[in-house]
Specification:
By secondary structure, the protein is mostly beta strands. The chain is built from no helices and 15 strands.
Length: about 150
């Protein structure tokens, strides 16, 4: 971890027991922001570009029967708990990406620049866009990236 202007943040007025696990041979570039109050796991041999945001929580609740009001300043809304982020081994995350709570990025996947990951990405896939969508998948038999046809 040798990038300038990196920071890893945990805690808040609330009390948490964050679990941040970073594997071997992980490369983080400049301005990587990791917000961990629950559980974030970054596997081995993960490569990350610059200006990436990874979080396992939100400032407030925005679904269900008891959402937080917009009349409460975001900094005063309680941080959410219970969602993890898992980035498996051999993943490459491009520049300017955002990884949101409750997401697993599967083994060997590639997340293109400027992508917002809002749901799980299967192993051996290339995902791009906001929100992320899989555009290619590794074909082990052909030893090639195959375009995924959208339905």
């Amino acid at each position: 971890m040798d990038g300038d202007h990196m920071f890893i943040r945990g805690g808040h007025v609330q009390h948490f027991t964050p679990s941040l696990i970073i594997g071997d041979n992980v490369s983080l570039s400049e301005y990587v922001h990791i917000g961990c109050v629950n559980h974030i796991e970054i596997g081995n041999n993960v490569l990350m570009g610059s200006k990436i945001y990874i979080t396992d929580h939100n400032h407030g609740v925005y679904r269900g029967n008891h959402p937080d009001s917009p009349d409460v300043p975001p900094v005063k809304r309680p941080l959410t708990t219970g969602e993890a982020v898992i980035i498996e081994d051999n993943v490459w995350i491009g520049e300017f990406c955002t990884i949101l709570p409750g997401v697993t990025i599967g083994y060997g996947s590639i997340i293109g620049s400027h992508t917002t990951v809002t749901h799980d990405i299967p192993p051996r896939c290339i995902a791009v866009g906001s929100p992320a969508r899989v555009i290619k998948q590794w074909d082990e038999e052909k030893k090639a990236w195959i375009t995924v046809t959208r339905k």
